[in-house]
Amino acid sequence: MPPFIPVNATLNLDEAEISLSFIRSSGPGGQNVNKVATAVQLRFDARRSPSLPNAVAVRLINLAGKRATTEGEIVITANQHRTQEMNRKDAIDRLLELIRQAAIAPKKRVKTRPTKTARKERTDNKTKRGTVKSQRRVSSRDWD
Predict the structure, then answer these.
(1) What is the DSSP letter of 141?
(2) pLDDT tens digits for 73-121?
(3) pLDDT digit string (tens) for 21-50?
(4) 39, 41, 55, 76: least CB-packed within 10 angstroms?
(5) How far apart are CA 25 and CA 28, in angstroms?
(6) Integer Cα distance of 25 and 6 in angstroms
(7) What is the CATH number of the domain that holds 79?
(8) Which residues contact 60 (CB under 8 A, 6 or more apart)?
(9) DSSP state, 8?
(10) Structural domain tally of the chain?
(11) Are 46 and 17 in contact, with CB atoms under 8 Å apart?
(12) 79 located within any domain
């Protein structure tokens, strides 16, 4: 049985769905940067993931923005830290946070109509404003 990463109370992510590759980092590390591949590039195929419901996968791809490829693969690069392990943990944490946000379904907007009083108030205010503006006008007869 493959190990699962808990995302929230209802979702678990299969570790086998995440592919990690280590690349050279441009961050801190001195001359070590040129020798050791400490940055992590995480790839997760959201569109084909059996762990995610379709609605969550669609929201995840939208949330990921430029980190998502046209094929629906999420690519996260982590190079904040000096060690592979810390960068690996950072990349996985960032993916899990994205999935948690995508798992929250947006609330449906309930259409509302303004009340009769609100409509009357609005028209009364428009009338008052129009009156004030018309009183400011200088008629041509006043200059004669």
Answers:
(1) G
(2) 899 988 888 888 899 899 999 998 998 898 888 899 999 999 999 999 9
(3) 888 876 566 666 667 777 888 999 888 888
(4) 55
(5) 8
(6) 29
(7) 3.30.160.20
(8) 46, 52, 74, 98, 99, 102
(9) S
(10) 1
(11) no
(12) yes
